[in-house]
Design a protein that fits this description.
The structure is a homodimer of 289-residue chains.
Chain A lengths: L1 H7 L12 E8 L2 E15 L4 E7 L4 E5 L2 E5 L3 H15 L5 E6 L4 H6 L7 E6 L2 H10 L1 H4 L7 E5 L2 H7 L4 E7 L13 H9 L1 E10 L7 H12 L4 E8 L7 E8 L19 H7 L4 H6 L1
Parallel strand pairs in A: 6-7, 6-9, 7-8, 9-10
Antiparallel strand pairs in A: 1-2, 2-3, 3-4, 4-5, 10-12, 11-12
């Protein structure tokens, strides 16, 4: 009887559960984004920041600096393409490009899609970001060894003050504006950038989220306007950045940054039509700047 | 000696901390968004869903159904304006409008900005959502008592099958497609909507996030195409919805939903230029549908 009863009863199987490991970014004091983590791949305190690379359940591998998600394999194209192709496609003939930060190589990869570009100089202060990206993020770092890539590990401010190099496009891929990156959103830095731009040069920099970082966004655009004759804002979606709504500042010495001059193939977020649409701002955002 | 030592030492003051209360939405199995909560205002298990209204630290009051954020006071305009003004501004003369769901009143408020609209019928299955919104979300529910608002608490499927009313624009503001809302993303439902539309009518429905709900988004557009001759997708930012990148399906019997025919005043997200820009899809999104 007892045995029959046991046979009829479906055995209670405890479901296999994954490790309940989460990467949580405190995007603001009152908002957190969490991604489920499959495995922690690399963790190190470098000379400049806490470096973490994890494999997430839904967004592929993620690069995290000082607790802030810098990129994930799944959605980095949304950011990298808009940082690179908007200034490059607005410029009539971009031969020399400067990237400040961006040691992971994502924006460099997009820049080198442009056949006009003869050399792209990338200045990242932290060699460990570059090395870890080469090892753990191959789809992102794949062009760091390209012959058209000139990768240097040094303080960008020192580089800008001492270099004789001149550029057609500068792209500032900063971390959040704290500690060593704080100066990268202020007029003296923009003046340094202006000095190393050729006539008709263009600068692009991330300017954060209008919901999460309103004041920083407003100030960055304000500081750009002190230095450059043409300053425009554009925006796009980046799911793993705070609020998913991401803004960019485009400063120019002559070309209209909102007008693409040529198409680029093989992109997943950027097109010439997206380029133009990204400069159409909702009134609430227009009113902030 | 002991006393002197005590005087010199700065006393350890434990900082005043807020309640560490968080609203956490499991947006997908591997992604969570959390908002810091100041106070829980109302919590009830209704006949249809778990209803929660909280006051958040950064997004004002939030309406939460079955654990999913339906709106926050701070960013609901991004969603409400795009749901209402895209179909209404595409229609040459929208006199009668139907809202399915939307008991909070946010979309109704936007619909009634249009002087053409003579009557807007709102069908929400859950009277408790309407009553709680009236009490706790005055900036959202403010037009629920408008003489041009015809608010009814009943199952929308029953209404569609039995009504003799006809509409120029239908807006489907569903919750996530589970349980009683599951039918609201399928061809038979779209056929019901088509039947109550006047010639030249337009339908808009949210179609979720391409990163968080790819399959649902694809299916909803596919099902719409089985019923309507013109189906287009558009998108925009909504910070507190999954991934912040939100898509909408626009189905039409004649007008081009991507072409605004008139402007609307007093909006914070929508403009005619935003309307057109929202229909420009990144290639990765275009490829999904």
């Amino acid at each position: 009887m007892g045995i029959e009863s046991t046979k009829k009863t479906t055995p209670v199987v405890r479901p296999t559960r994954e490790n309940n490991l989460w990467l949580t970014e405190e995007q603001t004091d009152g908002m957190r984004l969490s991604l489920r983590v499959v495995q922690t791949l690399y963790q190190k305190k470098t000379a400049y920041q806490d470096l973490l690379i994890v494999d997430t359940a839904e967004y592929g591998r993620a690069l995290v600096l000082d607790g802030a998600i810098q990129l994930t394999e799944r959605d980095e194209f949304c950011y990298s393409e808009m940082m690179a192709h908007v200034p490059l496609c607005s410029h009539p003939d971009p031969k020399r490009v400067l990237i400040v930060g961006g040691g992971d190589g994502a924006i460099l990869r997009e820049v080198l899609r442009h056949p006009n570009v003869e050399l792209c100089t990338l200045i990242d202060i932290d060699r460990e970001v570059i090395e870890a990206s080469k090892k753990y993020l191959p789809s992102v770092s794949c062009e760091l060894e390209n012959v058209r890539a000139d990768v240097r590990c040094m303080d960008a401010l020192t580089y800008l003050e001492t270099t004789g190099d001149r550029f057609d496009v500068a792209i500032v891929d900063s971390t959040d504006p704290v500690e060593f990156a704080a100066g990268l959103f202020q007029a003296p830095f923009y003046a340094d950038i202006k000095r190393i731009l050729n006539p008709g040069g263009v600068l692009t920099e991330l300017t954060e989220s209008p919901f999460a970082d309103t004041e920083l966004m407003r100030q960055a655009i304000c500081e750009m306007r002190k230095v450059f004759p043409i300053v425009r804002m554009y925006w796009g979606a980046v799911p793993t950045y705070p609020t998913g709504m991401w803004t960019y500042g485009a400063a120019s010495l002559a070309p209209d940054p909102s007008s693409p001059l040529r198409e680029i193939q093989g992109t997943r977020y950027y097109t010439g039509e997206i380029h133009k649409a990204a400069f159409v701002l909702p009134p609430f955002l227009e009113a902030m700047i």
